[in-house]
């Protein structure tokens, strides 16, 4: 049985500032890539998406901490990612322009029961996929929908017409 290497457990190989810089650059790059991927893809977690996220973490681990297995480096890396996440959340809460940049805007997919084709193309959502989302709400008629939005989270929100009102023309 091999003895515990107490020194190696805590003493990092990398300078703490280097870890912070590495984590910051990787965190910002991953945020950028995920933003490019699009919010539609982030709302669903198929096996391909989970595999991508898992492989992303495996690929980025070596970039963040290199060959340094010390707990100190791991703690610094985790704290740095948490600090970036906290900063982005705070900025989005405090400033609507920052929120729009960091989180994006809602995108209207249906207006007055009619598809907004330009926004469907921009978000890469097919009519078939949108109707599938509508059926999850127990409806299958676009005419029952006043409006629908692709939210920054990737979820589709439907606003239904009041049944007692006359239909829109």
Question: What does this molecule look like?
Answer:
With 169 residues, the chain is an alpha+beta fold. The chain has two domains: 6-103, no CATH class; 107-160, bsu07140 like domains (CRO Repressor), CATH 3.30.240. 59% of the residues lie in helices and 11% in strands. It has helices spanning 6-10, 16-37, 39-43, 47-65, 71-94, 96-103, 117-123, 127-135, and strands at residues 107-111, 114-115, 145-150, 156-160. The protein has a four-stranded antiparallel sheet with strand order 2-1-3-4. Strand 1 and strand 2 (114-115) form a beta hairpin. Helix 2 (16-37) runs antiparallel to helix 4 and helix 2 crosses helix 5. It is elongated and about 70 Å long. It starts with 5 loop residues before the first helix and ends in a 9-residue tail after the last strand. The model has no long low-confidence stretch (mean pLDDT 85).
């Amino acid at each position: 049985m091999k003895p515990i290497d107490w020194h190696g457990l805590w003493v990092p190989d990398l300078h703490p500032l280097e870890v912070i810089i590495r984590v910051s650059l990787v965190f910002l790059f991953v945020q950028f890539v995920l933003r490019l991927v699009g919010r539609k893809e982030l709302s669903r977690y198929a096996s391909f998406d989970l595999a991508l996220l898992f492989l992303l973490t495996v690929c980025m681990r070596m970039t963040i901490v290199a060959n340094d297995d010390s707990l100190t480096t791991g703690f610094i890396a985790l704290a740095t990612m948490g600090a970036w996440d906290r900063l982005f959340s705070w900025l989005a809460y405090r400033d609507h322009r920052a929120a729009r940049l960091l989180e994006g805007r809602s995108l209207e997919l249906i207006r007055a029961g009619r598809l907004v084709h330009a926004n469907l193309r921009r978000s890469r959502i097919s009519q078939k996929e949108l109707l599938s989302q509508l059926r999850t709400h127990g409806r299958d008629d676009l005419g029952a929908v006043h409006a629908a939005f692709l939210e920054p989270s990737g979820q589709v929100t439907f606003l239904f017409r009041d049944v007692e009102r006359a239909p829109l023309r």
